[in-house]
Each structure stands twice: as structure tokens, then as C-alpha cells.
């Protein structure tokens, strides 16, 4: 998901939730992400909502999974991301089966009980009330429909060539800061959300919960994109003043990634790893024809209120 007002940029001025950053991040983990979507075993011909689609990076993978008879609706709150997604889709083989909508996750421009699967990648970390949001999304799913949530968990991140004590202090300081940063005027964020997703889906009322983990490892030598990605992540850990971290640890941490003479990326023993989570659950709801008709009426009214992407662009 992209944000209209990113709050943090790395030292190159690249906001970590901006379109350019999302595109680079996607390239860095393309192989793993392709495997994630294959493992979902989405049904051919399905209607899939990409909730928090950002610039549409997952759309071709989803389109390939559901085939030419399937349909994808990408939803996001960022106009910039949606415009980028439409441009990316233009002229592609999957263009006829994709459309993009400007809307929040809690107000999808669809009738309740009509969607086969809702896919949401790297969005849950920004949800202050994930259980409430997941429960709301469930109402849009057809009986037996699935919510699929993919996200990070920086509790699994390791740089094997950096002092473990230093890493622990940096990560613990960031985790503590994320618990209180909203009180200081920053948007909500939980970068340790991955391992919590299964519990959130259960609490929201989903059944048949499935959790899959994907170990991502990179060794020396690193591709330039991945080097830039990890530098951005490293600096993000100590952004916003790095409260709770000593100045000595702050300096030592940044030297590991930006020092010209001693840089962990240039060591032949360099090894980085993290685990990403993909969790799915089946929505048990049942809908009558009367409820479906009522939802169509609500949808028609909400469609009149929602700005279309074309209106926003004009």
C-alpha cells in the first residue's frame, strides 16, 4: 500500500512507502513473491480484490494465477499509486481483466458477499485495528471466500555479520518506539505484525486458518537494488530520532551500512535473512438474496459519493 503523505525518507530522499520504493522492494523479492502467489492456488475465473494494491505490483502475479476469465479489482487510498498501477497495466495481457478503485479498505466499492478472495500485501502493518478491519473485509467475501494477508515481521530479520548485541538493542529500541509513536504524532505502524496475523484472523472470526512462512536470504555480493533496499531499512530502524537508543549505538549501526571503509555489504561473509508471512482464512458468513439486494442499493449510493479515479485525475 502506498501513502499519500510518507513520513520517512532514507538518506537518498526515498520515502519507504512511496511508489519508487515499493517498486524496488518488489524487484528485490520477485522470486519469493511469485512463489507466494503460486502457493495460494487461487481458483481460475475468481474475482480477487487486491486491497491496498499500491502501484499494482502484485496484479500480474494474481492475474496469472486466476487466468484470463478471472477479474481483479485493485483498491488503494493513494491517487499516485493508482495512476501508476493503471499505466503499468495499460497494453498488457492482463489489462482487460483489471480495474482500479480509489477507496479505503473498510469501504470497498463492491456489494457484500460477492468476492472470491481478498489479497492484501504489506498493508496490515499500518492498521491500528487489524481485527476490526479484517472483520469488515470478511463481509465482502462470498461464502467460503478467503482473506489472504501477507506481511513482514522484523523480529525475524538478521544480519549475521553485525554484532548480535548491537542488533538486539537497535531492534528492541524500534519495537518499543512503535508501541508509543502514535502518542507523538506519528502514524501507526507495527513492523512485527507477521507472526500476529494468524491470531488476528482467528479473532476476526475466520476459519481454516493457514499460515505459510517464506525465508528470504541474500549473500555477498548483493545486487545494487538490494543494497539500496537494505540501506533504507537500516536507516529506517533509527529514524524519527531513534528514541531509546544511545548515540554510540546509533553511530555504530549506521557505520555498518554506510561507512566507505567498513561496510557489511562488502564482506564476503555477508548474510542477511528475514521471514515473511502469508496467512489466509475462510470467511464463514452466509448471505440471503434479500441481503444481497440491500447491499447493491448501498453500493449504488456509495458509488455516487466516492470519487472515481478519472475524476481525481481531472
Automatic annotation (TrEMBL):
Domain Methyltransferase: 43-153
Highest taxon in the source lineage: Bacteria
Cited Pfam families: Methyltransf_31
Transmembrane segments: none
Matching SUPFAM superfamilies: S-adenosyl-L-methionine-dependent methyltransferases
InterPro entries hit by this protein: Methyltranfer_dom (IPR025714), SAM-dependent_MTases_sf (IPR029063)
Protein name: Methyltransferase domain-containing protein
Amino acid at each position: 500500500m502506498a501513502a499519500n503523505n510518507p513520513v520517512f525518507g532514507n538518506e537518498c530522499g526515498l520515502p519507504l512507502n512511496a511508489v519508487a520504493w515499493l517498486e524496488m522492494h518488489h524487484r528485490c523479492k520477485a522470486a519469493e513473491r511469485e512463489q507466494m502467489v503460486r502457493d495460494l492456488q487461487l481458483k481460475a475465473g475468481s474475482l480477487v480484490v487486491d486491497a491496498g494494491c499500491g502501484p499494482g505490483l502484485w496484479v500480474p502475479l494474481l492475474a496469472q494465477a486466476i487466468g484470463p476469465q478471472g477479474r481483479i479489482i485493485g483498491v488503494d487510498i493513494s491517487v499516485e499509486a493508482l495512476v501508476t498501477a493503471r499505466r503499468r497495466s495499460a497494453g498488457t495481457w492482463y489489462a482487460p481483466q483489471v480495474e482500479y478503485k480509489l477507496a479505503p479498505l473498510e469501504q470497498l466499492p463492491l456489494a457484500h458477499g460477492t468476492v472470491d478472495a481478498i489479497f492484501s500485501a504489506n498493508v496490515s502493518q499500518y492498521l491500528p485495528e487489524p481485527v476490526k478491519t479484517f472483520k469488515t473485509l470478511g463481509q465482502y467475501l462470498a461464502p467460503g471466500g478467503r482473506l489472504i494477508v501477507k506481511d513482514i515481521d522484523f523480529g525475524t530479520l538478521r544480519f549475521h555479520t553485525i554484532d548480535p548485541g548491537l542488533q538486539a538493542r537497535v531492534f528492541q529500541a524500534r519495537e518499543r518506539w512503535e508501541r508509543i509513536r502514535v502518542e507523538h504524532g506519528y502514524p501507526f505502524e507495527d513492523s512485527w505484525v507477521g507472526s500476529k496475523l494468524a491470531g488476528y484472523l482467528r479473532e476476526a472470526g475466520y476459519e481454516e486458518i493457514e499460515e505459510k512462512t517464506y525465508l528470504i536470504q541474500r549473500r555477498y555480493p548483493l545486487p545494487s537494488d538490494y543494497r539500496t533496499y537494505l540501506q533504507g531499512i537500516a536507516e529506517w530502524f533509527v529514524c524519527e530520532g531513534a528514541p531509546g537508543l544511545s548515540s554510540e549505538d546509533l553511530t555504530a549501526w549506521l557505520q555498518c551500512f554506510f561507512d566507505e571503509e567498513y561496510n557489511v555489504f562488502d564482506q564476503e561473509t555477508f548474510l542477511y535473512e528475514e521471514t515473511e508471512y502469508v496467512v489466509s482464512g475462510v470467511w464463514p458468513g452466509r448471505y440471503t438474496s434479500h441481503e444481497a439486494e440491500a447491499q447493491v442499493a448501498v453500493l449504488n449510493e456509495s458509488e455516487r459519493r466516492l470519487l472515481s479515479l478519472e475524476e481525481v485525475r481531472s
